[in-house]
Amino acid sequence: MKHFLFLLFTVFLCSNIVDTTTMGFSKLLLQDLFQNYSKDIRPVEDQSKAVTVNMDLDVVSINDFDEVAGTISVVIILYISWTDESLVWNSTSYGNTTELTFTQKKIWLPKMFLCNPADLFLPISSKHFKVKVTSNGNVFWLPGALLKATCTPDVSSFPFDQQTCTLSVSPWGYSSKEVNLNIPSQTVFFTYFYKNTEWDVIGSATTRWSGSFDIAYYYITIKRRHMNFLVSVVIPIIMLAFVNPFVFILPFDSGERASYSITVLLAFTVYMTVVSDRMPASSEPMSFISYYLLSLVGISVVIVTMNIFQMRTYSKHDTDEPVPAWLRQVYLHIQNIFRGKKVTAEEQKIKLAFTDGKANNGLDNKGTQNLESSKRNGDLFYASILPVSQGNEKVNTETVSMVTEHQPEVVTWHMVAKTIDKMYFVLFLGLTCVATAVYFINAN
């Protein structure tokens, strides 16, 4: 038992000695490594060879995507590694020290620059990052930064759009013969990604361009979360669009037709301002919702104009200005369409028989009341009041023919205005449906 305790104490003491010795060896190793080290010279013995630098990109978050300015702000981490031939040591000579971690300012770095910045052209790094070096000379450097890059938006399908933004990174100042840039991964990493409330990441890709110098391209495809804009803007616009034709259902005597149509027109102009504030100043490409709003404003302008003409038509007096013959034909044609059957001109005539005093006295109160009711309601069928011979109940066909040919059609301005109202309601409601369907088909 005593021997076992002595052995355990010896092992514990030796372990403490090893730890202390390792710290001392680390200090000694740092002194030996950087005794003749120059961070201004590329870390290869043969300076005619290029330093191979491996680089992958990890997106931490998408802070903002500004469609108007055409910029994207992302927080990224670069996984950069290369071999420094000046930082190789025998680990057994330094207490089995296989790796060291120290500040980046001590060694040569392939400083990376964003080639499509939206503001300043600065290296993607800061003095606070560290590097890790292994005994075989492999260097691992993980700089991070908030990048603001240019990104040309395609808002043609707004708010159902998706954008592909590019981050172009290059070891600026070194030619491809001095630094050979390599991208091990074919996609961008999202290891520590925080989801954005407005955008979802749906894809990524990488590629490398090699010419006089190397550039790494990282493509990030994002899709807008459209529910907020759909509820707050698109759906109210559609509701206004379908409410607009209902001005032709309002009675003429209500006095609200003009104010109703103008209010809807003003509402469309307000929504055009809201949408234009979210759109870039460029005209290529234009958003489908802009065309949709423009078509709705055009329909609303036509509705306001037609409504004014309709109120003028309704206010005309039949005694001062009778309905012209061509307009009566239009009225008959529209009635044919809505009734689904042919309505002849004979059904639009009041067959009045002007005979002697007895025939006129034969009009009872009921017949007169029916005639006046027919005129007020604008019916297409009117009662025939024909002369009847005493002692003979047969109709005098010659008299009927004469009255029918010379009696004018009873079509009032009120009847014309109400019928054209029906036509306008169906027409503009159909145009609104077509415009809305075309927008959603193109936007999706």
Question: What key attributes describe this structure?
Answer:
11 strands; alpha+beta; rod-shaped; single chain; Methane Monooxygenase Hydroxylase, Chain G, domain 1; disordered N terminus; 4-stranded antiparallel beta sheet; 444 residues; Acetylcholine Binding Protein, Chain: A; 7-stranded mixed beta sheet; 9 helices
Structure description:
There is one protein chain. By secondary structure, the protein is of the alpha+beta class. The protein is 39% helix and 20% strand. The protein has 9 helices and 11 strands. Strands 1, 2, 3, 5, 6, 7 and 9 form a 7-stranded mixed β-sheet that branches. A 4-stranded antiparallel β-sheet has the order 4-8-11-10, with no helix packed on it. Strand 1 and strand 2 (71-83) form a beta hairpin. Helix 2 (227-243) packs antiparallel against helix 3, helix 3 packs antiparallel against helix 4 and helix 5 (325-339) packs across helix 9 (413-443).
Task: Record the SSE blueprint.
Blueprint: H1 2-33, E1 51-66, E2 71-83, E3 99-103, E4 113-114, E5 130-134, E6 138-141, E7 144-150, E8 162-170, E9 179-182, E10 199-210, E11 214-224, H2 227-243, H3 257-278, H4 288-314, H5 325-339, H6 357-361, H7 365-377, H8 397-406, H9 413-443
Parallel strand pairs: 1-9
Antiparallel strand pairs: 1-2, 2-6, 2-7, 3-5, 4-8, 5-6, 8-11, 10-11
